[in-house]
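Bug #2210: token dump truncated for ABC transporter domain-containing protein?
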Amino acid sequence: MERVIEVESLTKKFGAFTAVDSISFHVKKGEIFGFLGANGAGKTTAMKMLIGISHPTSGKATVAGFDVFTEAESIKKNIGYMSQKFALYDDLTVKENITFYGGIYGLSRAKIKIKTQQLIEELGLEDIANNMVGSLPLGWKQKLAFSVALLHNPKIVFLDEPTGGVDPITRRQFWEMIYKTANQGTTIFVTTHYMDEAEYCDRVSIMVNGNIEALDTPKNLKKQFSAHSMNDVFLKLARG
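Reproduced locally. Full output below:
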């Protein structure tokens, strides 16, 4: 199966501190790849290198076929990104946010109009399309931000702690959206510190202190570490 992310010995240092220490892995097309670790483990720093907003110190990596060192702008055009804070503008309406990001992604006015209508209908936002995003519940902001990240049909979507702060029901609904997107061939790269969410991924890597300490399917990792859950796996790794 086609590899859409390839990483070899990727490293990021801040002075004498090594935030990401020579990590290597690959991600396949249409895969839901979980990038797990406690806060401060280095997963967000690694993601920032992959999406082209932080320059690596050393190593090699390609994303959607583009080199992270020399083709960062091309990477940005071929991926979607949803940050922890969803990156929507509270003082714009739902429609205005979609239109704004459609322009950022380089879509034509005609395409933006079509996409806006489709997205609003798919999310069931017809009654509040002209409401300010700041007035929406957190769960709706989350779903909208994810959909906006898909406006330009990217090959890969990077999700950085996308379910932080939302209730369990909304988290489950969000993962249903992730499954649907992956089934359509889009690769999902998701960071999370919710270990139960690792069970939803095709494969997961677990970072500890800037290093990838384990990488496999959830089933194989639980078997390897004689654990009942991914949380147990993580605790064993964290304890060394």
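Output looks complete on our side. The first strand starts at residue 3 and ends at 14. Marking as cannot-reproduce; reopen if the truncation happens again.
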